[in-house]
Write a structure and sequence with these properties.
Layout lengths: L1 E7 L2 E6 L10 E9 L2 H8 L9 E2 L3 E9 L9 E4 L2 E2 L5 H4 L10 E2 L11 E4 L1 H5 L3 E4 L5 H4 L2 H13 L5 E5 L3 H12 L3 E5 L3 H9 L4 E3 L3 H11 L3 E6 L5 H10 E8 L14 H7 L2 E3 L6 H12 L9 E6 L3 H9 L5 E5 L1
Parallel strand pairs: 11-12, 11-14, 12-13, 14-15, 15-16, 17-18
Antiparallel strand pairs: 1-2, 1-4, 3-5, 3-9, 3-18, 5-6, 6-10, 7-8
Helix pairs in contact: 5-6, 5-11
Amino acid sequence: MKAIVFEKIQQLSVQDKPIPTLNDGDVLIQMLLCGICASDLAALRGDISDYTPPVVMGHELAGVIVESQHPDIKIGERVTVNPMLSCGACIHCQNDQDKYCRTIEGIGHDIDGGYAQYMRMPKHGVDTGKLIRVPDTIPPEELLFLEPLGCCLYAMQETIFQNSVAILGAGPIGLMFTQLTKRAGLATYVFDPLPHRRTIAETVGADATFNISPDNVAHLHEITHGGVDTVISATTNNKSAINLSYQIVRKGGCINFFGLAPEGEELCINLEQFHYDGYKLMASWAFTRASLEESRQLILQNAINFKPLLTHQFPIIQGLKAFDNAIAQHGIKTALHP
Protein backbone atom coordinates (compact mmCIF):
# COMPACT_ATOMS: atom_id res chain seq x y z
CA MET A 1 0.00 0.00 0.00
CA LYS A 2 1.00 3.66 -0.34
CA ALA A 3 1.69 5.61 2.83
CA ILE A 4 3.08 9.01 3.79
CA VAL A 5 5.90 8.61 6.30
CA PHE A 6 7.28 11.31 8.58
CA GLU A 7 10.93 10.24 8.61
CA LYS A 8 12.46 13.12 10.55
CA ILE A 9 12.24 16.90 10.81
CA GLN A 10 11.88 18.41 7.34
CA GLN A 11 11.71 14.96 5.75
CA LEU A 12 8.49 13.42 4.49
CA SER A 13 8.15 10.70 1.87
CA VAL A 14 5.58 8.58 0.06
CA GLN A 15 6.50 4.94 0.52
CA ASP A 16 5.32 1.47 -0.37
CA LYS A 17 4.54 -0.39 2.83
CA PRO A 18 2.93 -3.78 3.48
CA ILE A 19 -0.74 -3.77 4.39
CA PRO A 20 -0.83 -4.23 8.19
CA THR A 21 -1.47 -7.75 9.44
CA LEU A 22 -3.78 -8.27 12.38
CA ASN A 23 -3.32 -9.94 15.72
CA ASP A 24 -6.21 -11.29 17.75
CA GLY A 25 -8.61 -8.45 18.58
CA ASP A 26 -7.23 -6.00 16.03
CA VAL A 27 -9.21 -4.43 13.18
CA LEU A 28 -8.14 -3.13 9.78
CA ILE A 29 -9.48 0.21 8.57
CA GLN A 30 -9.50 1.17 4.92
CA MET A 31 -9.06 4.90 4.63
CA LEU A 32 -11.66 7.04 2.89
CA LEU A 33 -10.26 10.46 3.85
CA CYS A 34 -7.72 11.81 6.31
CA GLY A 35 -7.26 15.50 7.08
CA ILE A 36 -3.89 17.23 7.37
CA CYS A 37 -3.67 18.71 10.86
CA ALA A 38 -1.68 21.79 11.85
CA SER A 39 0.14 19.63 14.40
CA ASP A 40 1.51 17.48 11.56
CA LEU A 41 2.85 20.59 9.84
CA ALA A 42 4.39 21.78 13.11
CA ALA A 43 6.06 18.40 13.68
CA LEU A 44 7.49 18.45 10.18
CA ARG A 45 8.90 21.94 10.83
CA GLY A 46 10.40 20.76 14.11
CA ASP A 47 8.27 23.10 16.22
CA ILE A 48 6.81 20.37 18.44
CA SER A 49 8.23 17.15 19.80
CA ASP A 50 5.30 14.82 20.59
CA TYR A 51 5.90 12.64 17.51
CA THR A 52 8.06 9.53 17.26
CA PRO A 53 9.35 9.24 13.70
CA PRO A 54 9.53 7.30 11.52
CA VAL A 55 5.75 7.06 11.57
CA VAL A 56 2.84 7.21 9.17
CA MET A 57 1.10 10.44 10.13
CA GLY A 58 -2.65 11.09 10.13
CA HIS A 59 -5.21 11.11 12.94
CA GLU A 60 -8.22 13.04 11.52
CA LEU A 61 -9.58 10.09 9.63
CA ALA A 62 -12.67 8.58 8.10
CA GLY A 63 -12.63 4.92 7.16
CA VAL A 64 -14.43 1.63 6.93
CA ILE A 65 -13.68 -1.72 8.60
CA VAL A 66 -12.48 -4.23 6.00
CA GLU A 67 -11.10 -6.91 8.34
CA SER A 68 -11.90 -7.64 11.96
CA GLN A 69 -10.34 -9.98 14.49
CA HIS A 70 -12.47 -8.42 17.24
CA PRO A 71 -15.82 -10.02 18.16
CA ASP A 72 -17.54 -6.66 18.68
CA ILE A 73 -16.56 -5.03 15.38
CA LYS A 74 -18.15 -5.90 12.05
CA ILE A 75 -16.77 -5.58 8.54
CA GLY A 76 -18.36 -2.67 6.71
CA GLU A 77 -18.78 -0.37 9.72
CA ARG A 78 -17.88 3.28 9.11
CA VAL A 79 -15.45 4.56 11.72
CA THR A 80 -13.08 7.19 12.91
CA VAL A 81 -10.79 7.07 15.93
CA ASN A 82 -9.97 8.68 19.20
CA PRO A 83 -6.24 8.86 18.40
CA MET A 84 -5.01 8.84 22.00
CA LEU A 85 -4.41 5.25 23.06
CA SER A 86 -4.05 5.25 26.82
CA CYS A 87 -4.01 2.67 29.61
CA GLY A 88 -7.66 3.16 30.51
CA ALA A 89 -6.99 2.52 34.21
CA CYS A 90 -4.88 5.34 35.71
CA ILE A 91 -6.37 8.33 37.54
CA HIS A 92 -6.16 10.47 34.40
CA CYS A 93 -8.02 7.92 32.27
CA GLN A 94 -10.61 7.48 35.01
CA ASN A 95 -11.16 11.26 34.98
CA ASP A 96 -11.55 11.35 31.16
CA GLN A 97 -8.17 13.07 30.85
CA ASP A 98 -6.50 10.40 28.72
CA LYS A 99 -4.08 12.95 27.29
CA TYR A 100 -2.19 12.99 30.60
CA CYS A 101 -1.80 9.21 30.78
CA ARG A 102 1.85 8.23 31.17
CA THR A 103 1.57 5.36 28.69
CA ILE A 104 -0.19 7.31 25.94
CA GLU A 105 0.52 6.48 22.31
CA GLY A 106 -0.83 8.70 19.58
CA ILE A 107 -2.20 7.34 16.32
CA GLY A 108 -0.28 9.16 13.60
CA HIS A 109 2.19 10.37 16.24
CA ASP A 110 3.75 7.24 17.70
CA ILE A 111 2.00 4.43 15.84
CA ASP A 112 1.06 4.39 12.17
CA GLY A 113 -1.99 6.45 11.31
CA GLY A 114 -4.29 7.41 8.48
CA TYR A 115 -2.05 8.77 5.71
CA ALA A 116 -2.16 5.35 4.15
CA GLN A 117 -4.54 3.12 2.30
CA TYR A 118 -5.02 0.94 5.38
CA MET A 119 -4.49 1.36 9.12
CA ARG A 120 -4.44 -1.19 11.94
CA MET A 121 -6.35 -0.35 15.11
CA PRO A 122 -4.90 -2.50 17.90
CA LYS A 123 -7.10 -4.55 20.22
CA HIS A 124 -6.23 -2.35 23.18
CA GLY A 125 -7.60 0.69 21.34
CA VAL A 126 -10.84 -1.10 20.53
CA ASP A 127 -11.23 -2.44 24.07
CA THR A 128 -10.74 1.03 25.61
CA GLY A 129 -13.34 2.64 23.35
CA LYS A 130 -11.04 4.45 20.96
CA LEU A 131 -12.78 3.19 17.81
CA ILE A 132 -15.72 5.50 17.07
CA ARG A 133 -18.51 4.07 14.92
CA VAL A 134 -21.01 6.18 13.00
CA PRO A 135 -23.86 5.46 10.59
CA ASP A 136 -23.05 5.05 6.89
CA THR A 137 -25.09 8.19 6.27
CA ILE A 138 -22.26 10.33 7.67
CA PRO A 139 -20.05 11.26 4.71
CA PRO A 140 -16.28 10.99 5.16
CA GLU A 141 -16.01 14.71 4.29
CA GLU A 142 -17.72 15.40 7.63
CA LEU A 143 -16.46 12.44 9.67
CA LEU A 144 -12.81 13.51 9.36
CA PHE A 145 -13.72 16.62 11.41
CA LEU A 146 -15.01 14.65 14.41
CA GLU A 147 -11.70 14.70 16.29
CA PRO A 148 -10.78 18.39 15.73
CA LEU A 149 -14.37 19.43 16.51
CA GLY A 150 -14.05 17.48 19.76
CA CYS A 151 -10.97 19.56 20.59
CA CYS A 152 -12.93 22.76 20.02
CA LEU A 153 -15.83 21.55 22.14
CA TYR A 154 -13.54 20.73 25.04
CA ALA A 155 -11.99 24.21 24.80
CA MET A 156 -15.48 25.72 24.81
CA GLN A 157 -16.17 23.93 28.10
CA GLU A 158 -12.98 25.25 29.70
CA THR A 159 -13.04 28.84 28.42
CA ILE A 160 -14.66 31.71 30.31
CA PHE A 161 -17.23 33.49 28.12
CA GLN A 162 -19.49 36.47 28.65
CA ASN A 163 -20.88 38.32 25.62
CA SER A 164 -18.18 38.72 22.98
CA VAL A 165 -15.27 36.71 21.60
CA ALA A 166 -12.49 37.29 19.11
CA ILE A 167 -11.03 34.30 17.27
CA LEU A 168 -7.52 34.60 15.89
CA GLY A 169 -7.22 32.51 12.74
CA ALA A 170 -9.84 31.38 10.23
CA GLY A 171 -8.40 27.99 9.44
CA PRO A 172 -10.46 24.84 10.07
CA ILE A 173 -10.22 25.20 13.85
CA GLY A 174 -11.03 28.91 13.88
CA LEU A 175 -14.03 28.35 11.60
CA MET A 176 -15.39 25.61 13.84
CA PHE A 177 -14.93 27.88 16.86
CA THR A 178 -16.78 30.60 14.95
CA GLN A 179 -19.79 28.35 14.52
CA LEU A 180 -19.69 27.12 18.12
CA THR A 181 -19.47 30.59 19.62
CA LYS A 182 -22.36 31.78 17.46
CA ARG A 183 -24.38 28.75 18.61
CA ALA A 184 -23.60 29.89 22.16
CA GLY A 185 -25.07 33.32 21.40
CA LEU A 186 -21.79 35.26 21.48
CA ALA A 187 -20.87 38.24 19.35
CA THR A 188 -18.04 36.73 17.30
CA TYR A 189 -15.19 38.59 15.59
CA VAL A 190 -12.53 36.85 13.52
CA PHE A 191 -9.00 38.03 12.68
CA ASP A 192 -7.07 36.54 9.77
CA PRO A 193 -4.59 38.06 7.29
CA LEU A 194 -5.94 36.02 4.35
CA PRO A 195 -8.97 37.51 2.54
CA HIS A 196 -10.38 34.16 1.36
CA ARG A 197 -10.40 32.85 4.92
CA ARG A 198 -12.12 35.97 6.24
CA THR A 199 -14.79 35.47 3.57
CA ILE A 200 -15.44 31.91 4.76
CA ALA A 201 -15.62 33.14 8.37
CA GLU A 202 -18.40 35.51 7.34
CA THR A 203 -20.11 32.67 5.47
CA VAL A 204 -20.26 30.52 8.63
CA GLY A 205 -21.59 33.32 10.81
CA ALA A 206 -18.90 35.71 12.06
CA ASP A 207 -20.37 39.09 12.99
CA ALA A 208 -17.33 40.84 11.53
CA THR A 209 -13.87 39.91 10.25
CA PHE A 210 -10.65 41.87 10.36
CA ASN A 211 -7.25 41.98 8.77
CA ILE A 212 -4.50 42.41 11.33
CA SER A 213 -3.70 46.12 11.55
CA PRO A 214 -3.69 48.85 14.23
CA ASP A 215 -6.71 50.47 12.58
CA ASN A 216 -8.72 47.27 12.85
CA VAL A 217 -7.70 46.79 16.47
CA ALA A 218 -8.93 50.33 17.16
CA HIS A 219 -12.17 49.60 15.28
CA LEU A 220 -12.79 46.46 17.35
CA HIS A 221 -12.26 48.47 20.54
CA GLU A 222 -14.78 50.99 19.28
CA ILE A 223 -17.55 48.50 18.49
CA THR A 224 -16.96 46.44 21.66
CA HIS A 225 -16.51 49.46 23.96
CA GLY A 226 -12.99 48.57 25.03
CA GLY A 227 -12.24 45.08 23.81
CA VAL A 228 -13.80 41.63 23.72
CA ASP A 229 -14.55 39.55 26.79
CA THR A 230 -12.69 36.51 25.43
CA VAL A 231 -9.97 35.72 22.90
CA ILE A 232 -9.42 32.26 21.45
CA SER A 233 -6.11 32.13 19.64
CA ALA A 234 -6.68 29.39 17.06
CA THR A 235 -3.46 30.08 15.20
CA THR A 236 0.25 29.55 15.83
CA ASN A 237 0.89 31.28 19.13
CA ASN A 238 3.98 33.23 18.19
CA LYS A 239 4.86 36.67 19.50
CA SER A 240 2.55 38.52 17.10
CA ALA A 241 -0.49 36.40 18.03
CA ILE A 242 0.27 36.79 21.74
CA ASN A 243 0.59 40.57 21.39
CA LEU A 244 -2.63 40.82 19.37
CA SER A 245 -4.51 38.82 22.02
CA TYR A 246 -3.55 41.34 24.69
CA GLN A 247 -4.41 44.26 22.43
CA ILE A 248 -8.00 43.19 21.80
CA VAL A 249 -9.11 41.68 25.13
CA ARG A 250 -10.63 43.91 27.77
CA LYS A 251 -9.28 44.08 31.30
CA GLY A 252 -10.55 41.13 33.28
CA GLY A 253 -11.06 39.12 30.09
CA CYS A 254 -10.04 35.57 29.21
CA ILE A 255 -7.42 34.50 26.67
CA ASN A 256 -7.25 30.86 25.58
CA PHE A 257 -3.99 30.15 23.76
CA PHE A 258 -5.48 27.14 21.98
CA GLY A 259 -3.09 27.00 19.02
CA LEU A 260 0.31 25.37 19.05
CA ALA A 261 3.39 27.46 19.78
CA PRO A 262 6.85 27.16 18.25
CA GLU A 263 9.30 25.37 20.53
CA GLY A 264 10.99 27.89 22.81
CA GLU A 265 8.23 30.51 22.58
CA GLU A 266 7.68 32.12 25.97
CA LEU A 267 4.82 34.02 27.56
CA CYS A 268 6.30 36.80 29.67
CA ILE A 269 4.07 38.27 32.35
CA ASN A 270 4.61 41.29 34.55
CA LEU A 271 2.92 39.88 37.64
CA GLU A 272 1.99 43.27 39.11
CA GLN A 273 0.34 44.38 35.86
CA PHE A 274 -1.26 40.93 35.47
CA HIS A 275 -2.69 41.24 38.97
CA TYR A 276 -4.34 44.59 38.30
CA ASP A 277 -5.46 43.84 34.74
CA GLY A 278 -7.15 40.65 35.94
CA TYR A 279 -6.63 38.58 32.81
CA LYS A 280 -7.60 34.91 32.84
CA LEU A 281 -4.95 33.07 30.82
CA MET A 282 -5.29 29.45 29.77
CA ALA A 283 -4.39 26.89 27.15
CA SER A 284 -6.73 24.13 26.00
CA TRP A 285 -5.60 21.19 23.94
CA ALA A 286 -6.95 17.88 22.71
CA PHE A 287 -10.29 16.45 23.79
CA THR A 288 -12.06 14.14 26.19
CA ARG A 289 -14.07 11.06 25.40
CA ALA A 290 -17.14 13.09 26.33
CA SER A 291 -16.28 15.93 23.94
CA LEU A 292 -15.74 13.44 21.11
CA GLU A 293 -19.17 11.99 21.79
CA GLU A 294 -20.63 15.50 21.75
CA SER A 295 -18.85 16.07 18.45
CA ARG A 296 -20.34 12.85 17.10
CA GLN A 297 -23.81 14.00 18.10
CA LEU A 298 -23.41 17.42 16.47
CA ILE A 299 -22.32 15.74 13.24
CA LEU A 300 -25.32 13.41 13.37
CA GLN A 301 -27.55 16.48 13.84
CA ASN A 302 -25.95 18.37 10.91
CA ALA A 303 -25.32 21.16 13.41
CA ILE A 304 -21.99 22.32 11.94
CA ASN A 305 -21.42 23.46 8.37
CA PHE A 306 -18.31 21.61 7.21
CA LYS A 307 -18.87 22.14 3.50
CA PRO A 308 -16.84 25.39 3.19
CA LEU A 309 -14.02 23.94 5.29
CA LEU A 310 -12.83 21.01 3.17
CA THR A 311 -11.41 22.71 0.09
CA HIS A 312 -8.69 20.41 -1.27
CA GLN A 313 -8.30 16.64 -1.64
CA PHE A 314 -5.22 14.82 -2.93
CA PRO A 315 -4.45 11.13 -3.44
CA ILE A 316 -1.85 9.71 -1.10
CA ILE A 317 0.57 9.29 -3.99
CA GLN A 318 0.57 13.12 -4.22
CA GLY A 319 1.13 13.47 -0.49
CA LEU A 320 4.05 15.88 -0.75
CA LYS A 321 1.99 18.16 -2.98
CA ALA A 322 -0.84 17.98 -0.45
CA PHE A 323 1.48 19.05 2.35
CA ASP A 324 2.80 21.92 0.24
CA ASN A 325 -0.80 23.00 -0.32
CA ALA A 326 -1.54 22.96 3.40
CA ILE A 327 1.70 24.75 4.28
CA ALA A 328 0.88 27.50 1.76
CA GLN A 329 -2.59 27.90 3.38
CA HIS A 330 -4.40 27.47 0.09
CA GLY A 331 -8.09 27.15 0.78
CA ILE A 332 -8.98 25.94 4.27
CA LYS A 333 -8.61 22.20 4.89
CA THR A 334 -6.50 19.77 2.86
CA ALA A 335 -7.23 16.05 3.04
CA LEU A 336 -5.81 12.86 1.56
CA HIS A 337 -7.63 9.91 0.01
CA PRO A 338 -6.40 6.52 -1.29
